[in-house]
Amino acid sequence: MDSPILSIAIAKPPYDCFDYLSPKVNHPIVPGMRVQVPFGHSKRMGMVVAVKTDSDVPAGRMKPVDHFLDQHSILPEEILSLLWWASQYYHHPIGDVISTALPSALRKDREPLVKEIPMWRLTEAASSAILSPRAFRQQAILDLLLRYPDGASSHIMQELGFDWRGPLKTCVDKNWVDKFFTSPLTRNAHPLNPDYGINAHQTSAIESIKAGFGDFNVTLLDGVTGSGKTEVYLQLIQNVLEHNLQVLVMIPEIGLSPQLLSRFQQRFSVPITTMHSGMTDQERLNTWLLAQSGEAEIIIGTRSSIFCPFKSLGLILIDEEHDASFKQQSGFRYHARDLAVYRAKKLSIPVVLGTATPSLETRLNVERGRYHVASLPERAGVGSAPAIQLVDLRRQPVKQGLGLKVIEAIHETLAKSEQVLIFLNRRGYAPAIMCHQCGWSAGCHHCDAKMTYHHDDERLRCHHCGYETRLPTECPSCDSDALQRVGMGTQRLEQYVNTLFPGYKVARIDRDSTRRKGTFEDQLDAIHKGETQILVGTQMLAKGHHFPSMTLVVILDIDGSLISGDFRATERLAQQLVQVAGRAGRADKPGRVMIQTLQPEHPMLQQLFTQGYTKYSKMALQERQQAELPPYVAQTLLRAEANKRQLPVQFLEEAKRQLQQMGGQCLGPIPSLMERKAGVFRAQLLIETKNKAVMQQLLNHWVPSIGQLPSAKRVRWQLDVDPLDVI
Ligand code: ADP
Ligand code: ZN
Ligand code: ZN
Question: Does 213 map to a domain?
């Protein structure tokens, strides 16, 4: 027999599939094996995706594979066919789809082996360590390890920001630091059951979901914050484990709090592994392999865990299903929730989507009878729903962004020894710097965006590309020294709050204050112990944290989202308000939420707070239907970017003509809302069809011809199917 022809997906640009000849090897050749192949003048890694007997490429022009990296498939057929489907649905090259799906260790030539994780911790001798004043790296290592009594992994060491391996070895040699290994599979020998019985709503939710086990179906678990959704998950998981099946729990990017993880660990004795960006390559590889072998029985992970292979998956749970972080926003722009539903269907297993604020997409699927719904309408155990008050900012004195009513309420709360959360979704000190004399403002050199002023190091930073400079002492345009900081970010708010409420401890939680690993946990800890009374923070705080004495939540500066041109902005704001409001009064003390706004009569706010999120979302769905917006129509964005302004629009105009010849409809092309980002000019074309099936037909027809356009060579273009951001 002739040697077979291998279709190889290349894991680097152009990410396409190419045919290669197979060398003679003494193992079977099957899809899912990694290979090294010659490509142009270089070598590339790729993956066998098909073994064929013929090819369109003449045999004389086909090159042989250099060698195999694997002797067995590392991607089960189930995953490979999921990836093929995703590649077709999102019209994204299979090579990049595979490369996105693989744990990064397998994207390199790492062997698929489970390894113990090296960790470091201080020895007793460390407390009497005498360092030379110049050994500041060793000092930094000892300081860091002091915060991790159970040991720190190499991922945690990364936060040191310097090459720590040499100095760490010195510390080990001096016997100040102990290196040890932990197994990636740990079990809790003493699982604990809750000290309460489940309530009637929980029971009926559990029973109705369990009735669908063993087959494909999707249930929306629609439960207000604090209604005991997690308890429902735990009971369902228990049931699945009893059938010797595995469970995948998907959570938003910042959703895996130590509290959530420990609730799972306390309850079960089976091995639980996690998969998220805060792990080393080897740790993520371990999780992937242990899920595949069936040794890990519960996997808790962020969006990419949807690609994890399982030996026998029995249930997929998606917590906070409405969260936008389930959609990847660059490269292969998949939606993990949507892929989960597809995968579950193929596997004939159930999916549970849990949230207090279902997305309109999911709500419509419920209305159309595609998804079941189970509701938990009340808070479980102690704690009642907070009282919500819309505070009209127009008719009262305002001090540095805080209205008098809010200031009074904060005083009252603090006087009762309770805690306050002030929510402002903008980090930094001030979102703009302007000259009072001439009107100049500090813009980014690389983006159409204002620079944000950061007070701690007196620098201006662009939150879109990361560019930063020093704060100028005088106006670069008129030389006056009348530069003013305009608007308010969390740093400025923290400063004001400190002066307004002297004698209380204020903590700020945002991406800047928690950049160092561990600080977030330390800050949360201080709140729990009551050492901190006022918390200022961004949406990092919105999810999953319980603060029993947090009885007042103040929400600032929502007016921008109420008037945004993005039709999803009000939906997102409504979700965020409900989530943040849910932080108030989770224990026996009643909670209170104050929302400051210039538009208290806005219909969204009125609906949301007089009738609740469900009623609001029904109204919002009607609006979408009337306006012919998703989820009632399907959308796809064709994005293009180039280093010259006119190129993306030219290309999109040509693509649009092609599309129209095929009978397709579109809006644009228009420059992106921020046309220039990180030095690149961006524009987009929005394609609309009456549903997803029609969209797929159109894209199947159109997409192959886009690449043939001469102007396509001068831009980088990409499709975003079912985009979440369209402006
Ligand atoms: P959610 O995930 O819906 O926000 P949780 O599952 O975190 O809610 O539950 C909120 C709180 O109520 C937790 O402290 C949990 O321990 C408690 N809880 C859950 N179910 C019950 C119940 N049936 N009886 C008493 N307390 C409960
Ligand atoms: Zn000026
Ligand atoms: Zn920038």
Answer: yes
Q: Residue 612: inside a domain, yes or no?
A: yes
Proximal ligand: closest to the CA of 460: 3
- Identify which has the larger pLDDT, 188 or 593: 593
The C-alpha atoms of residue 660 and residue 637 are separated, in whole angstroms, by: 15
What count of other Cβ atoms lies within 10 Å of the Cβ of residue 473?
7
Phi–psi pair at 255, nearest 5 degrees:
-90, -15
Task: Give the mean pLDDT of the chain.
Answer: 90
3-state secondary structure 313-352: EEEEEEECCCCHHHECCCCCCCEHHHHHHHHHHHHCCEEE
Clarify whether residues 362 and 405 are in a common domain.
no
Q: Which residues pair with 222 in a beta bridge?
A: 355, 375
Q: Give the Å distance between the CA of 450 and the centre of ligand 2.
A: 16
> Which one of 182, 213, 239 terminates a domain?
182
Q: Read off the pTM.
A: 0.90
76 CA to middle of ligand 1, Å? Answer: 38
Amino acid at 75: L
Q: Which ligand is the nearest neighbour of the Cα of 478?
A: 2
The model's pLDDT over 48-71, given as tens digits with 9 standing for 90+, comes to 999 998 888 887 888 999 999 999
Q: What is the pLDDT of residues 367-399, one digit of tens each?
A: 999 999 999 998 887 667 778 889 998 877 777
Amino acid at residue number 659: L
Nearest to 572 by CA among 564, 229, 625: 564
Domain of residue 146: give its range: 117-182
The reply to whether 420 and 355 lie within a common domain is no
pLDDT of residue 182: 85
Ligand 1 environment, Cβ below 6 A: 196, 198-199, 202, 223, 225-231, 380-381
